[in-house]
Amino acid sequence: MRITTLSGGVGGARFIRGLRRHLDRLPGGPGDHEVTVIGNTGDDITLWGLRVCPDLDTLLYTLGGGIHEGQGWGRAEESHRIQAELAAYGAKPQWFGLGDLDLATHIVRSQWLGQGLTLSEVTARLASRWGLPDQGLTLLPMSDDPVETHVVVDDPEADGGQRAIHFQEWWVRMQASVPASRFVAVGMDRATAAPGVLEAIRTADVVILPPSNPVVSLGIILGVPGVRDALRGTAAPVVGVSPLVGGAPVRGHADACLSAIGVEATAGAVGDLFADFLDGWLVDPGDAPPGSAAGSSRTPGGLRLTAWDRPLLMPDVASATELAGAAYDLALSLRPT
Amino acid sequence: MRITTLSGGVGGARFIRGLRRHLDRLPGGPGDHEVTVIGNTGDDITLWGLRVCPDLDTLLYTLGGGIHEGQGWGRAEESHRIQAELAAYGAKPQWFGLGDLDLATHIVRSQWLGQGLTLSEVTARLASRWGLPDQGLTLLPMSDDPVETHVVVDDPEADGGQRAIHFQEWWVRMQASVPASRFVAVGMDRATAAPGVLEAIRTADVVILPPSNPVVSLGIILGVPGVRDALRGTAAPVVGVSPLVGGAPVRGHADACLSAIGVEATAGAVGDLFADFLDGWLVDPGDAPPGSAAGSSRTPGGLRLTAWDRPLLMPDVASATELAGAAYDLALSLRPT
Asked: Could you tell me if B118 lies within 8 Å of chain A, comparing CB atoms?
């Protein structure tokens, strides 16, 4: 089976690690399932001259066994000597923290990009070091073209009363505390999907959306020309997992992002964002309409909600494995017979 | 007094630190003397996409108190986590070792160069962090234009039986064990002296050449258009310190370099390389002709040798201070009255 997923950072990476584990335990063994991950690169940023791809790195480290489990991003056993040196030199910005081991990834990525390799080629090299191919995992950036999400915020001192700042500045430095008016994917007008992305969706047996941020992770990937059409057109069932539990994001600032695009922070409203291509939408038991039987309720957009019988949270690998298994089983149940 | 020096890496840096200490102890105090250091950038290399300036960095760290005293280059209390990561990714080359703290310098330098700053401007910023201005020290790269020394070596498999390799590959990877046919300063034909370089020589009260490598350090700086003419034309006395003691280099592979340019590895022969502008040449007692009185003997090129009454070695800061003091006193004795 060929399973294709779209993913942001922490939540997606944990979910996909669970998915891989679930698939490995199925009869037939690991070799029976190939998983392709299409990673968001809208969070990418150039810091200190180095190209940083936070979501791809979180996926690499999580799937490759190098992640800092506690914080969900960055490297285990990390140190921060270089950051202190950069501060001593007055290098800016200082609001984005990069560990020493993590920096090595950015150095080598920047070197390879500078030599003319595409981000896809670079990502494949990085994935090789982290053993992804050996696990039947292929990590693709959504695009080889630089796309950087910017956030439009109010600023009385700016022309027109608004200005656009890099997503990372809003997310990391401001902790999404300043209301976002809208998101702009700078570079998307010139971007094309990376090699293999559209094919991975079109030829998949199953497509799964993990509980990634619906606006600035999945939403950005969906903006890559051809991706949404491929999802609408694929013969594979497409199922997703709600990133909201009881109206609150499991992690991150999804509610602040939804507010910017005028979407209610409910599992149903988020599912309706994807209703044009989604076949199944896994929600928390508390988010299904009261009294509805599993699979029986529908969103205003007509999407069928399926409540899983346990909370959607992923406190550990075992629970992520179970959740991913439930999503996978839902997808199988929706396959054309 | 305005003292101008030309310098390579370790030997030059230690000598200039001693010079600064000597000047600080003179009547009038530190404020009475400004020292300008013109650093060799021919050793520069781009590694993993980062611009590395080994001689400038050795000068910064030595004069700024951050040097690894034992090895003479690199940072004190250094770690090597990033290098191990780069190796895990298969990044090349692996024969050049860069510590974590040291890498921060290269990251910030590369960032600033990428933003359009000149190497002079970048070096001034780095020097500021290391407190050089507060010590009355100005560090100038010899040129803002990239100049990289290459070494022509025999290679039976190459076209013409020879090939040129980067100086660092010859020096660090091969440890100068392969005979050099000649040195080529790639980029020198398009290079100009960095701002302030020629002025610092022309307007100096004293010019001192530390015991740096006469071929690949001082020799490269002298190849920058205008530098040699400025040394010939300056009203300041120009004195140098022999980098050879008894025919052997105090440090590094100066003998292998001299052999390539067909110059005998003696203090006198090296002095004659600079005889067109040198007014005094400090040599080891063992390198002055037997029985000659101090200052009385001359090289075949007519250069007056001055034997210092102690060995030229600089095993510690105190001895470097004494040696630099002797060179400075020699220069003062040669000033027009």
From this structure: no
> Cβ contacts (< 8 Å) between B49 and chain A: which residues?
107, 110-111, 114
Domain count, chain B: 1
CA A133, CA B82: separation in Å to the nearest integer? 24
The pTM for the full model equals 0.93
A75-112 pLDDT per residue, tens: 999 999 999 999 999 998 889 989 999 999 999 999 99
Model pLDDT for residues A269-286, shown as the tens digit of each residue: 999 999 999 999 999 988
The contacts of residue B96 (CB under 8 Å, 6+ apart) are B45, B47, B52, B168, B172, B173
C-alpha to C-alpha distance for A269 and B246, rounded to whole angstroms: 85
Binary contact (B49, A104; C-beta < 8 A): no
Which residue in A48, A111, A125 is closest to B107 by CB distance? A48
List pLDDT tens digits, range A119-172: 999 999 999 999 999 999 999 999 999 999 999 999 999 989 999 999 999 999
> If you count residue pairs, one on A and one on B, with CB atoms under 8 Å apart, how many are there?
81
Domain contains A79: no
For residue A218, the cross-strand partners are none
Tell me the ipTM for this assembly: 0.90
Is residue B128 in a domain?
yes
Residue A294 has pLDDT above 60, yes or no: no
Strand order in the sheet with B162-166: B162-166, B148-154, B180-186
CATH of residue B214: 3.40.50.10680
Residue B271's domain comprises 2-66+104-145+194-248+264-333
